[in-house]
Amino acid sequence: MQPILKPSEDDDTTVIAPVSQSVITAKLPLLVLPRAMALRAQRYRHTALYSLWLRTRKSSKVAIFPLDPWAGSLTIGQKLVEGTLRVSNEEWSFSDNPWQVPRETPLPVGVHRFAWLRDLHTLGGNQARAKARNLVVSWIKTHKDLNHPAWAADITAMRMVQWFSHYSFFGASSDRTVRLLLERALTVHLHILRHQYAALPDDERRFVVLKGILYGYACLEDFRGGFVASLPLLEELITTQIADDGSHKSNVPALHIRVLRDVLDIRALCHGQGIGVPLFLQQTIEKMVDVLRFIRLGNGMMPQFHGSGFERRELLDTLLSIADSKAYIQGRRQALGLQKMQAGITTVLLDTAATQHYASLPLCESTLAFEMTVGKEKIITSCGVSPLLNATWQQALQQSAAHSGLTLNNTGTGSSPNVTINRDALAPNAHLEVTHDGYARRFGIVHTRKIMMTDNGEHITGEDILEGQGHQEITLRFHLHPHIRAVYEQGKNKVYLDLPSRDLWTFQAFSGTITLAESVYFCHSGARLDTKQIVVQGKTSEVKTVFKWVLQKA
Length: 554
Hints:
Blueprint: E1 4-5, H1 28-31, H2 35-41, H3 48-55, H4 74-81, E2 84-87, E3 90-93, H5 117-123, H6 126-142, H7 153-165, H8 167-170, H9 176-196, H10 205-219, H11 226-241, H12 253-273, H13 279-295, H14 313-323, E4 328-329, E5 334-335, E6 338-343, E7 346-351, E8 370-374, E9 377-381, H15 391-397, E10 406-408, E11 419-423, E12 431-436, H16 440-443, E13 445-453, E14 459-468, E15 473-480, E16 485-489, E17 494-498, E18 504-509, E19 513-522, E20 528-539, E21 543-553
Antiparallel strand pairs: 1-4, 2-3, 5-6, 6-7, 7-8, 8-9, 9-15, 10-15, 11-12, 12-13, 13-14, 14-21, 15-20, 16-17, 17-18, 18-21, 19-20
């Protein structure tokens, strides 16, 4: 892997400054509790004594109002003003005090993140301002029980960031009584996060919680000295969770995007503090942005592996615009466990991730599955994903059968088999060979997928090789995007693929029996679309079996 290349000096790049050398490491335990103390403190977090301690803390004035660079929705904002919030394809009554307990149906926990404040702020106007203020104030008055799920560390941090980010909209113009209430609530949020941070599991939640802490130190007048002193905690967290190539170590694209948004918000805080951007933070952003650019398919979207792919294209474009980085890693062939082949206008992404379990997104059995675009048109896909779907659908979409890969005896690969990758160093886009052992323990079979692509990207040859026991049922699936019209030609094991651009591609299998079956595709909105899948079925022979197939432009 080549080192990261910086833009030329003529480019308009972010000013980079090192962290102040006056940071005293010995003072860090005063900013967040050390892990041993934080773990002990969890025993007392839900007691009346802890609540009493929080009430005795001195409130701090909000001195800085950070700006929120992310776009909201005018439509959602207007619906909120009218008293309706849409979550997970359901509409919820959202009066000025929707928090009253008991409700017939409790609000989803995600509502307590207050991300919808962005929509009210985008709408603007006195009605939206009054709505935002009433909803925040009523939440504070209603949610004093720290046992409520809304006080989970990551939810608390997201809510705190939203309150700070939109304080200029709904809080700064409030009367003194409301401002004092808001200041006390924000101070309490900061204390709770300081006490919980070190006790959190080492996953992506630490980023958003540390971001909340940094927002508190940046914006609350009595805590502002802690901002610079806390930056070494950020550097330590980046070292723990971000690989040298800029990939989030979960190998989950959606988590990579989420963490990148967090570090971009922290970079903006650094500018607001007038200290410049620490070198480690700027370099991390440049590498993470390069990863994001690298894993986008030709249609501008993310691949649909491991609960990812539901992000809107507009969000990704906005993220890259805010990052404003032209740096890139020369010779990159993989990121986030995804192997990329690109020639002409054809892009193939193959999942080889050694995935780790992270709390907020499920892992899927997509080892050696691939997705493919030609220009901006997607041909080979997965069945999709959406955070709006119910648990039954979410589980189904995690299975190997929901991806364009191979299943053995109608079972999946498992979430984290051992994977071996072989690429031609001289012609990396011409030949990719990957092997995994996900079926070895159960069936005594090792699966290898080879993909070869011509220089113009118009001819792709695949081989699925199975070595081991014979007489095992093999199924290869190639899920087609709903925009592709597929026609099966009897007797030739061939399918014609008619693209929206009117280009014609063909799929042909030289082993097994080919059929064109029904499939489904879920958009990021949660809408279900009917589509087709090419299915190749056969059995393994003794020792070694090869299933060869070709995708080519007609």
